[in-house]
Structure formats: structure tokens, C-alpha cells
Amino acid sequence: MSAILEARKVGRVLHEGEVPVTLLRDVSLSIMPGEFVSITGPSGSGKSSLLYILGLLDQCTSGAVYLNGLPTDDLGSASLSRMRLEHLGFVFQFHFLLPEFTILENVRIPMQRLGRLSERDQKDRATHLLEQLGLGDQGEKRPAQLSGGQRQRAAIARALANAPAVILADEPTGNLDTKNGRIVHDIFKGLARNQNTAIVMVTHDQALAATTDRQIHLVDGTLDLES
Amino acid sequence: MISIIPLLLKIALAHLSGRRRQTLVATAGVAMGVGFFIAMAAMMQGFQTYFVQTIVDVSPHIVISDTYRELPRQPLTLIFNPENAALAIRNVKPKEEIRGIRNAGRILRALADMKGVKVAPMLEGQIIYRYGSTDKAATLSGIDPDAEKNITDIESDMVSGKLDNLKTYANGIVIGVGLARDLNAKYGDTITAVSPAGIVRNVKIVGIFRSGITALDNRASYALLKRAQILQNRPNVINAIRMHLDDPNAARSVAADIEKRFSYKAESWQEANEGFMAVFTIQNIIIYSTTSAILIVACFGIFNIISTIVNEKTRDIAILKSMGFGEGDIQGVFVFQGALMGVCGAVAGWGLGYAMSRGLGAIRVNIESELSMDRLFIIYTWTHYAFGGGACVIAATLAAWLPARKASKLRPVDILRGAA
Ligand SMILES: Nc1ncnc2c1ncn2[C@@H]1O[C@H](COP(=O)(O)OP(=O)(O)OP(=O)(O)O)[C@@H](O)[C@H]1O
Ligand SMILES: [Mg+2]
Question: What is the predicted ipTM?
């Protein structure tokens, strides 16, 4: 089986200030379909930076990222957007739901943008996803009317809208209590097992990380191979 | 691409509905610009149309007079073209010619043979009217009443008497209402006329007209051509041929042809009123620049709101981009906001402009300048609405363009870092 997402000797240097800042150095890793990978490391070690590069939101300054075996470093912003739309899903610490839209509409937006399903099928799929995540009766509410845990689950439903091959999550349980954190974690586990969705999750929670298929530890922008 | 427009519009509307009051104010601003433009254009163009209409009705379309536009060439310059010969003739004294159109009968007949043309002869001269203690300088035009009726609307402008009275009363004159007022004379009164030739005659007012053109009403008088020729001591002379065309817009070119043919100066009504045409151009420039100014100010409002929304919605922009929305999509969302305000402003502006036009049309005025008017003349034409609405939508869309472009260039990573 070949990797769905692969980083080869990825480096990222920022040239914004007077002195160049190295965020990442020589990071290589591959993610297999259906694999649940956690990234841990001290604050400022470059976890988010790595996730953005893997998610094609940012581009590396050396090395290369391969999605589905294809290099992505030559792609223009329109192609990168298209790749994200079709193959990737994001979950952040903050839910980023659009406040003016209902939960159901929020989940539908990526499907509308992709435009592969009919309106009927989009609504059915969105309802189905919300049911899967235990939000079957919350679809008509606005994000502000939901609890933090519910919002985070709605954000996961939205990330799943176009059935992505990889979900990239940056501290998705960071704003949640232990119970809700557990629930989100179990959802990811289920997705990896049952739907063959690869999950890359940045987390500070060692206990949660320990239960994933593979733990990657970052220190100062490089992989800590000893762990 | 087209299929996602409803989605982008929906997001655009959601953003605007979050800032309802500001959106309303900015939209009202552009609506005002469109409304003022429509009302002002309706009034100004209404006035201009009325003005031209009056001129065309009251005055002849072409006047051929007994003057030349250029002095006749000197024989020497006919041989040596002064433009490329070292030749200059100074102090040329033009020959004093006997005033009047020579061969008038032949010219009149030739003109009358043209298609869609009516002609009337005239002898125009100065006169002084004396009545009681009042002296009043005026012009006396000797006319042929039957021919004159074909040329101008004077018959329908008569407030007392009629033009044909000139034929029945041997010493009759028809004068303008302003002139009668200045002389303190009434219909039927006999007044004294003194011509520059020194001839003094008593004449009887057998008609008074009101043309609406103040210069005519205050200064013009008419007599039978024969009477005028006697009074001016210029028997059988005419010094103007007045023409009416079936197509008044052709006056310029017809006049040019006639001038080439008979070499007498032939002036079209457009040329005679060129000063007013220039004033109209200035009026139009004022309308367009004022409304542009209003629109520009209103567009600053639109620019402001959309910039505010972009700053407020950076998180939404970031998540939409990470979801897979492209730069064009994001730009579309915000450009649509400007366009939506523009369209709403245009429609509201149409209503406002129409209402204001009706209001202006209902105003009664009392204007006595070049023209006398009792109300404002309003013109309703779809071109004003199309132009006003179009300019509004384009301006609003352009105003949204810059902030929309800024939004499309936001890097999601920068925002996600800040929001975490
Ligand atoms: N725009 C920037 N300019 C300068 N330094 C930056 C910039 N962005 C990130 N950094 C630095 O890059 C390093 C890695 O940041 P990153 O957000 O990837 O860390 P992290 O592992 O996600 O940390 P945390 O656990 O706190 O989220 C940090 O030291 C950070 O200060
Ligand atoms: Mg981070």
C-alpha cells in the first residue's frame, strides 16, 4: 500500500523578520490510508507549521510534499485549493463555523463548492454526517446555540463533507473538557478504522496520543527519532 | 464556476445582513446619487427640449440675409494665392453696396422649388414707435402674411387680433405683447412710427402676439411688406429670406448648400442659437459632475463597509480558503456585496428619481427670461434611468473591488495562527 500523504525532507524557513527563522528542518514522514497519527511536542516546536504544510495551506521552502503520490510544490494556488477541497479536511482548536449559517448549512458548504452532489443528496449527506456525530437534532441551529463539544463535532462533520482521504487536526480537543475530548478522539478512531480516513492530529494530551497508531514527536522543528 | 454563484451570493448576503444599518446608509447614498441624476437630467433636458421646440416653432429654420460671411476676394488674390505668395493687401475698403438681396425674386423662386421647403420674404429694419410720451425703439419686419404663416407659429401666438388683419387694414401693424405694454398701447390704438429714413406715419395696432421668447415679445413688430418698404423708403427691396424645413434637423446642411449657391449668408436656427447650445453643454457638464461627486462619496461608504466586513470576517475567509475556496471565490463574495448594494441603490434611485421628477413637474413658476415659462418641463426617458443605474452598479462594484482583492489575498495560515 502506498502513502496517501508524504513529506520528504521538508524544511520551512521564514524570511519575514531581519533574521530568517527556521520553523522546520528535514522532516520526512508518510501517512498511510486509514492511519491515525498523532504529532506531539513542546510548544513552539513546529507542530502547527508542519500540519499547515501537510495540509497544503503553506508551502515548504525545501523538500517536497506528495499527495496521493503526486508532488505538490509546483502547483498554483488554484490547484492547491482544488486539492484541499477534494482530498483534505481540517479541524482546528477553534471551530470556525460560519456564524450566520445553520449547522446543516455549514456542513453543506464544502459540498456546494465541489458541486458533485445534487442539492437533495447534499442535504441527505449533511444530515447523515450530523447523525453520525450525534448532532442529528441540531442541524437547524446556529453555531452560537451549541455547546463547545457540539460545535467541535459540527466542525468535524464539515471536514468530512467531501469524504476527504486525510483529516488534519490541530489540537482539536484543546478547547474541550476531558469527556468531550474523549468523544472527539473516539470519532477520529472510528473514521480511521471504518472509513479508511487517515488522521493526522496535533495534540498536547499524551494519554490520547498514546492510543493512536503512531506518535510523531517534534522538537525544535525536527523529528525526535528517539521517542 | 457559474453553479457556485448562488453560494457566493448567499455568503455575501449573510455578511451584509450582519451590518444592516451601515449597508442601508451606503445604499441610500448611491440611491441618492442616482435619484438626483435622474431628476436633474429630466429637468435640464426637459428645459432644453422645450427651448429648442419653442425656437423651432417660433423662428424660421434658416434665414438668408443680405450679408456675406467673407468679403469678396480682391482680384489680385484671385490670381496669387496669398497663402503661398509674398502678397499682402492692406487697407482694403469694401465697396459700399446697396443693401438688400439682389435678384431676390429669382432666388425666392429657386428656393421655393426645393423639396420640403417653404420660403417667405422679409424686409427687416429699425423703427421708433411713439405713443403719448413714450418712445420705443423696435424692429419692423415687412412680411407677406400668407407666406409667414408657413414659416413660424406667429398666427397661433396672437393674443388679440389676427395676422390677416394686416391685409385688411392698410396701415396696420402687429406688435409683441411686451412692446405694447411698454408703449402703454392697446389693441386698436393708433400710434406713430418713425423710420430711420425720416418717414413718419400713423399706424394702427391690429394684432398683439405672445411668442414666449422675450426678445421678440418686447421688440418685434410686423407690417405688410409693401408698407414696410414705403416706410423705410426702400421700394421693392427685401433683406431677408426666411425658410421653413420639413426636417428642422437638416437646417445646418441645407443652409450651407444655399450659402454656397447664392453666396449670401444663410444661418440655420442651430447657428443662430449657438450660445444657448454652449450653455446646454455646460449645464450637462454640471449635472454629470455633481452626480459623479455624489456617487463617488457614496462609493467611499461602500468601500468602508466592505473593508470593515473583510476585517471582521478574516476567520471566515481563512476557513473558507482552507476548505478549498479559491482566491476568485473569496473576491467574488465581496465584489458581490458591492454589486448588490449597487443594484439595490440603482432600483431605489430610480424610484427616488421618478418621484423627484414628478415633484419638480408639479412646481409652478413664473420665469421671464429668454423664454417665459409657467412650470418646469420634465422629460421622462429610459436613457437617464439606464445611465444612472448602470453608473451606480459599476461604481459600487469598483468600490468593492479593492477590499475584495485584499480579502482574496489573505493567507489562511496567518489567521489560523492568530486565532488558535
Ligand atoms: N510568522 C512568524 N514569525 C516568526 N516566528 C514564527 C512565525 N510563525 C511561527 N513562528 C515560530 O515558529 C515556531 C513554530 O510555531 P508553531 O506554531 O508551528 O508551533 P507549535 O508546535 O504549533 O506550538 P504550540 O504547541 O504552541 O501550538 C514557534 O517558535 C513560533 O514562534
Ligand atoms: Mg500550534
Answer: 0.94
